Amino acid sequence: VVDTFLEKLVAAGSYQRFVNCYRCFYKLQPQLTKSIYDQFISQLQASIKEEIQEVKNEGNLEGLFSSLDKIVEEAKDREEPAWRPSGIPEDDVRSSMVPYLLKHRSHLRRVVREKEEENRKVAESVLMGRDRIAELQQLIQARQQAWQ
User: Fold this and answer.
1) Which tens digit of pLDDT belongs to each residue from 111-129?
2) Are both 57 and 105 inside the same structural domain?
3) Residue 75 belongs to some domain of the structure
4) Would residue 76 count as lying in a domain?
5) Which UniProt keywords apply (predicted)?
6) What is the residue-wise DSSP string for 71-92?
7) pTM of the prediction?
């Protein structure tokens, strides 16, 4: 890949362009100009290869590329297509967040129903306790009156 890139770079920055830039020098010594061009291109290629290798080493790109290859291999058997960004951030966020938020909402609704049921039972218990207290107060008053 790097070599192909460098070949295209050399073809794009052809010798003729180099000659056009250094026309006066080329007129005086064409062979030396060609030699300088060749040396410049070889040093440029070496420098680019070195930079690419440095980036690969610093960023642990070899490991990342191998893990990416693994993911691609695992995904070959899947029938559904992998998620791809649409380029519209709002849509991308919506497509990933809406299912999560809907699931969270249903969970919260279930919790609210459970709490409402629990509160209803507690309210019934409180009312039963109040009724029992009223009954006991009436019983106490009746016994008090009977005792007097």
Assistant:
1) 999 999 999 999 999 999 9
2) no
3) no
4) no
5) Cell cycle, Cell division, Centromere, Chromosome, Kinetochore, Mitosis, Nucleus
6) HHHHHTT-SSPPP---S-HHHH
7) 0.39
